[in-house]
Amino acid sequence: MLEIKNLHAKIDDKEILRGINLTVKPGEIHAIMGPNGSGKSTLSSVLAGSDVFEVSEGSASFYGKDLLAMPAEDRAREGLFYSFQYPVEIPGVSMVNFMRTALNEHRKYNNLKPYTAGEFLKLMREKKNLVEIDSNLTNRSVNEGFSGGEKKKNEIFQMAMLEPRVAILDETDSGLDIDALRIVANGVNKLKSKDTATIIITHYQRLLDYIIPDFVHVLHNGRIVKSAGKELALELEEKGYDWIKKEFED
Amino acid sequence: MSMVDTDIKTEQRYTSLFSEKREVLDKQVSQTIASHRNKSIRLFEEQGIPTKKLESYKYTNMLPLFEENYGYDFEHKVFQQDLSQIFRCDIHDLDATTVYLINGWYYRQNQLPNLLPEGVLIGSLAEYSTSHPEIFEAHYNQYAKNDEDSLVALNTAFAQDGFFIYIPKGIVVEKPIQIVNIMHSEGDLMAFPRNLVILEENAQAKILMCEHTAADYKYLLSAVTEVFVDKNAVFDIYNIQNQHNLTTNVSSVFIKQKEHTSVLTHNLTLHTGVTRNNIHVHMDDEHCEAHVYGLFITDKNQHVDNFSFIDHAKPNCYSEELFKGVLDDASTAAFAGKILVRADAQKTNAFQRNDNLLLTDMAKMYTKPMLEIYADDVKCSHGATVGQLDKKAMFYLRSRGIGVEEARILLMYAFAYEAVEKIRVEAVREQIRNLVEAVFRGELNKCNSCVLCDNDAETGFSCR
């Protein structure tokens, strides 16, 4: 369970998040929508532990623990997953080595024995099939030379491997053609369970045709200004964001 | 046995030592080796020990390093102990023909496999200089540039032994030949190993040189390796340096290439005190191909200087250089890459790159491409970068649960990876991958890459 209270964050004295309140319970899917510059991506990177932003006020608790006090790696090990809008290319680090290191760091954190090479490869095969990622992608360096769609699929594959309790998908749909979007959405749906929650950050509602949210929130000027069910996404698609901007001008 | 420390000029100490020891130096070698000494010591004296005043040594002042009071091993006694009992090389698991040198002297109890192809000679330079004068004289001191580098001249003046490899026409030596030089003494020591490699037409060989220090004394190692690669031959030389911080290692490799040859040099400096690598490739015929690579990983106060000189003397040749450095703490390094494309060397392709990763604000890298092009139909490029660990990549790794330390290791390794992958011999590449990773993990000390450092080891072989 993720509980965000009155979260403020700034970069170079410019306040971007101005009091976010959000509670995400196991089994729920939340969509956070909003115009460009509303703070969607800032919210997700602050939660993931990026040190680009400074949290100036508020709190976030993750299954009872103070999320904001943890370094990024511990947030991941506690079960928070952040799917990057722009996954980073890391030439020279193979996907296999990357994932094996990540997984074993998670296991070490939880006092579990590291996976043997055999166990790991078996798991990797299973998850690869689950999210329909091509074998030769996992034989390459992390994201190196991947197309936009491949990078996003790779994020979902990593999510499948790490089995998070809460996943934040930051504009996972941007730049995806409809086939890739379907594969990504299928992956997310297959990984969904009553114990896991998903936060989908998106500008458009198309992804929400495939991943049906329980709640839709509208972020504007660093605050959640409107929350409703999935019908809100359709309304936004139809009317755009201008009416929100007008209604909540300050 | 060491040089007397007085106020006289450092160079003079070496020339006096030379005069004094002349007879001893000549004792075990052929007339050919002896006959090159006088001229070389003169060249050394004229040029003086390189300081930063010299363009080619702009970032490394050799003078203080030669001022130390080193002992010498000119009357080398054959090492009596069984080396294999006290010495082990990580790369030993490799299916290779391994020979040992001690202080640059060929270890006479080296066991060579019976399966070496017919006509292949691997052994002591001093011995082969006497037993095979016709091959030796044609090549010895023909490629080393005594008049361009005083340290090369100094080596020629003091040269006594080293390894000699001869691969006759058409012979392919499939297994890598691994040459392990161990500095072993009971006091500070200098050595001038001299090596000669000859590949006849259409021959192939790969050499793996491993430089090690076995005892905690100051060492000055100034080696020269000459290589002649005849038509259609293929040759690889990997120089793996894993020495302690008190070592000064000067390694000069001179390669002469004939038509349709392919050579690869790779200097991997994993640990050192001060290292200077000179790589000279002379493309003396058309359709030569040269791959010149390097990887250096430094920390503390280590200093590594790579100097390469690719001489495109003839048309239609290809050269490719890649040097990568990872510098930690207050270490410093330099790269200077000279490419000379002579007037009639049309259709030359020459590419050079030097990329460096600085891990601290104190580490310093000097990089200098030097291209001289006198032909007009050529393709040449050069580039150099100096950067830090990528913060975005760091965050990406951490966001997957990888801790800062582990992420750093992954990223450093990722940076070095490109240079490691240039190794053409797969088995060697695999071994080097592990060695490099061990260096980044801080798990490779000077001992466990080649020396089995157990507590029972003989005095002088223990690293503790």
Please summarize what this structure is.
The complex is a heterodimer of chains A (250) and B (464). Chain A contains ten helices and twelve strands. Chain A has 250 residues and is α/β, with parallel strands linked by helices.
Mind explaining what this structure looks like?
The complex is a heterodimer of chains A (250) and B (464). Chain A has 250 residues and is of the alpha/beta class. Chain A has a single domain, classed as 3-Layer(aba) Sandwich (Rossmann fold). Helix content of chain A is 39%, strand content 28%. Chain A has helices at residues 40-48, 72-77, 95-109, 117-131, 135-138, 148-162, 178-191, 206-210, 231-239, 242-247; strands at 2-11, 14-24, 29-33, 54-62, 65-66, 80-83, 90-94, 141-142, 166-170, 197-202, 215-220, 223-228. In chain A, the strands form three sheets. Chain A has a six-stranded mixed sheet with strand order 6-9-10-3-11-12, with helices on both faces. In chain A, helix 4 packs across helix 6 (148-162) and helix 6 (148-162) runs parallel beside helix 7 (178-191). Chain A is globular, with a radius of gyration of 18 Å. The two termini of chain A are 32 Å apart. With 464 residues, chain B is α/β, with parallel strands linked by helices. Chain B has two domains: 10-285, no CATH class; 389-448, no CATH class. Chain B has helices at 10-26, 31-35, 37-47, 63-67, 83-86, 125-131, 133-139, 150-158, 391-398, 404-420, 426-440, and strands at residues 71-72, 97-102, 105-106, 121-124, 163-167, 177-183, 189-191, 194-199, 204-213, 219-229, 234-242, 247-257, 262-271, 274-283, 289-298, 303-312, 318-327, 332-341, 349-358, 364-373, 379-387. In chain B, strands 1, 4, 5, 7, 8, 10, 12, 14, 16, 18 and 20 form an eleven-stranded mixed sheet that branches. A ten-stranded mixed sheet of chain B has the order 3-2-6-9-11-13-15-17-19-21, with helices on one face. In chain B, helix 9 (391-398) packs across helix 10 and helix 10 packs antiparallel against helix 11 (426-440). The longest helix of chain B has 17 residues, at 10-26. The radius of gyration of chain B is 21 Å and the shape is globular. Classes of the chains: A alpha/beta (250), B alpha/beta (464). At the A-B interface, helix 2, strand 7, helix 3 and strand 8 of A face helix 9 and helix 10 of B.
